[in-house]
Amino acid sequence: MMNKKAVVTGGSNGIGLGIVRCLAESGYDIALSYHSYREGAEAIQSEVREHYGRECHIMQANYVEDGAGKRFFAQAVTALGNIDLLVNNAGITRFESIFDLTEETMDTVLKVDFRNYMILMREACLFMRKKGVCGSIVNITSTRGERAYPKDAVYGGVKAALNRALQSVALDAAPYGIRVNGVAPGATRVNSKAEIEAKGQPDYLEELSKEIPLRRPGMPEDIGQAVVWLASDKASYVTGVTLRVDGGLILPGPPEAPH
User: Fold this and answer.
1) What was the pLDDT predicted at 197?
2) What Enzyme Commission number(s) appear in the record (predicted)?
3) Which of 60, 105, 206, 226 is 20 to 30 A distant from 27 in Cα terms?
4) pTM metric for this prediction
5) 3-class secondary structure, 62
6) d(CA 28, CA 41)
7) Cα–Cα distance for residue pair 40/173, rounded to 1 Å
8) Is 155 an active-site residue?
9) Options 155, 176, 204, 237, the catalytic residue
């Protein structure tokens, strides 16, 4: 994977941070976007350069703004000189009951979690087709796109739409050797236990882990390794697939059965 180039949205913290680390470890130069956490972006930039010996460019982007995705992609490609992989990860989570649902929530989640993903996929496909790059696109979705939860009509509905949309994009892009897939995380620990305790927040993942078949929450690096595999030649015959990385959390089974 030496000298490969990856563009990652939302790479300064959480799942995006784990993805960036795994890609850098696998030999990718990276351009990542961040929304407001510049300190985290600068920290991972230094880590990628000093620990992994790879290029890392950071750019601020607010995907609620019209044109932000297209601008970021152009900046990223200019900085890297090429692109082999796009990882659509930046997203916003809002949970509201249908009785409390606001138009602002609908517009924001649709813009950031769906419209922007589509725009970036379009830009990546256009660039790869023009340059003859048999590249890869990986979209971070969610297991919430497959299972219904209360107060989750918009966020979960958008993730379900993304799972379906990437299949059609995969068909459009396949004749040019471009593969398009998704990774659906489940319950993933994006903050350490120490950070949670420092904020005085309950560690709900600790309790939920008892209900996860593999008995632990996911880690950002679990998602990152799935992205690395889907982008690699080992997955060269895989396209149009959304890969669950959830420890078996939403596997079907009789509700009365003990875990």
Assistant:
1) 62
2) 1.1.1.100
3) 60
4) 0.92
5) coil
6) 17
7) 34
8) yes
9) 155
